[in-house]
Amino acid sequence: MKKIKKNIYHISRKLKILMCLQIVLLTLSFMLILFFNWQNTKLQQNNTIYQLNDTLLLHINSTFEKLDSATSFPVAHIVDRYHDPLLTYLCDSNHGGLTKTDFYRIFFNRTSEVNVQFPEVESVLLFDTEGVLLDSKTIYNLYLPTHNYSFSTWYQNCLNYNGKIYILTDSEIDDLGVRKTSQNLYGARVIYDSTSIKPICISLIGIRATDIPVTFEATKKFSDQTFAIFDSSGKLFFGDSNISIDLNSLQHSQKKEYQFVRSENGKQYVYHISYSANANDSYSVIRTPRTPLIVAQIQSVLFVFVSGILIIFLNIIIFNGIIGSINRPLARLINMCNEIGKGNFSIRIPCSQNDELAYLTNSFNSMCSQVQELISEVYVKTLTKKNLELQMLRSQINPHFLYNTLENMRMTSYTQGYTELSEMCLLLSKVLRYGVTNQAELVSVKTELEHLQYYITLLNFCFPRLNTSIYVDEDIMNYHIIKLILQPLVENSVNHAGKETQHPMNIQIWGYAEQNDLLFIVSDDGVGIPHEQLENIRTSLDDENDTVHGIGLKNIHRRIRLYYGDNYGIVINSNPGRGTSVTVRIPNTLPIQEEQHD
Q1: Inter-residue contact 550 to 487 (CB < 8 Å)
Q2: Side-chain half-sphere exposure of 439, counting CA atoms within 13 A
Q3: Are 509 and 520 in contact (CB under 8 A)?
Q4: Quick one: average pLDDT of 88-101?
């Protein structure tokens, strides 16, 4: 027994590549986790801001509902239409005989009811249809002159809203002379007589909306966040007046929540926009500086980042430790492999019972004593036998002589006017060329079916009573199979079932996927096979001693077994007098780009 020398084993290039690949994969995994964590943080930030937008819109909707009820105070007693003194004063041309003093008293009482029902109301103003102020009441005891406001912008806009609430802008509020703060809204609307459907007055209400900024300040995540509320026309009516957004950007949020980034005065801001049809078609916009958003995102993933770096370094240390622990035993195995590569199978590795790779070393020594026998008696013989079988099954004729002869026959028939015979020669040439050319092991299902169609067309010249139907799923057309598994089955049906009867014969070809396999079924309605003969055929399929004659059932079965293994092949079923079916089962091969065939 020859001993080999001990060499120090250095990490090979492949092992280094493997180590680097592991580190790269670990790093990529870490980067993916970091990326998804970052995205999740951004998503949570966006959801939080959109939820705050929705909360602001809910408060705006509540404020609009209060404005809607408060501005309707002149018709609050509409059920007593003909006995309500305020309606009588507004609707009758002579004011129902009421004096100004009576009107002021009635107005005071009615506005007091409004203040009791809605404590948030700060100002109540009533104008006639010409824009003249009839009376007003504010909690600030402001005196407003009773002159004509018909030339004011808010008056014209209010008329255009046709009874809907119009929210006054800051400049319109200043022109009116009422008190304006960052926490109140002024809404005006035209009041119509329900009987004549004519305008009788204009009601203008100022209301506190302190819950909106208070909620925002208590809920916002960043100190520099601001908000603004816009109406359906894109006009800002509440919030930070420095926020300016065009209507087109606002309308993007009608289908789904919308955000964008914009630079202002050298700083970048993120705008989140939400829309609510319930809040009088209003838009809520929250502006957030981008820098604190990014800082918050970085802080959220910092722990993951540090942990990932530590894991990568720990993995490198562990990997190096494992390599070092198997260094010497692996060196002996490598040296032994080098000797075996030179053809020396007599060497043995001294094995210590405490060796970490003792089991592998013993197995390797045992392998050396058997490998020569395996090579000479098993591997070479088996491989040679299979190669010879495959070559015999696929290449038994010289194709060139047949191609030239068939082409001469086709041209002669065509020139003599025998077009049908010429076409038969062409089809036969295609069928033969498909079987003996292009030695690629696999073809697509689509290509196999195209070849089968050529063969069926050729058969129809000889057997006009033959009816063939093909039902193959489109989903499996690009899967690849071995050549010539369907055409021999159809040929077998015609030869053994079609010649026994003069009646029309029907052949059906089915193909579909079943889990990880492809199934093809060729069935006919011929005379069938007697039970005893059927059992003999089934037995002969696996008879290794039988000689292959032509391309038939056994040919297909053996080629499938050779290529795919013993779990696949064909199954034959038959009922005498009713027909025969042959089922082919092969594993599906993932679709690849279909090869081009002549």
Answers
A1: no
A2: 7
A3: yes
A4: 82
Per-residue pLDDT tens digits for 401-460? 565 566 666 566 667 666 677 677 777 777 777 776 654 468 889 988 988 888 888 888
Residue labelled with tokens 């002149």: 74
Share of residues in the chain with pLDDT > 70 (%) = 79
Name the least confident of 151-160, 188-197, 284-293, 329-338: 329-338
Tell me how far apart the alpha carbons of residues 241 and 237 are, in angstroms, rounded to a whole number. Answer: 8
Q: With CA atoms as reference, report the closest residue to 204 among 138, 88, 123.
A: 123
Cα(241)–Cα(285) distance, integer angstroms: 12
Q: Give the span between the Cα atoms of 365 and 1, in whole angstroms.
A: 11
**Angle at Cα 54 formed by Cα 49 and Cα 59, nearest 5°?**
125
Please state, in angstroms and rounded to a whole number, the distance separating the CA atoms of residues 149 and 147.
6
Exposure class string for 116-130: b at 16+ Cβ within 10 A, else e: eebebbbbbbbbeee
Tens of pLDDT, residues 144-164? 777 888 888 999 999 998 888
Q: Which helix (H) or strand (E) holds 572?
A: strand 569-575
Report yes or no: 506 and 469 within 8 Å, Cβ to Cβ.
yes
Distance CA 15, CA 37 (A): 32
pLDDT (0 to 100) of residue 402:
62
> Cα separation of 230 and 13, whole Å?
66
Which comes out higher in pLDDT, residue 551 or 404?
A: 404
- Which two tokens mark 137? 């009441």
> How would you label 410-425 residue by residue, b for 16+ Cβ within 10 Å and e otherwise?
beebeeeeeeebbbbb
Quote the tokens at residue 217.
């300040």
Per DSSP, 497 falls in state: I
Q: Dihedrals φ, ψ of 35, to 5°?
A: -65, -50
With helix as H, strand as E and coil as C, how does 150-180 read?
CCCHHHHHHHHCCCCCEECCHHHHHHHCCCC
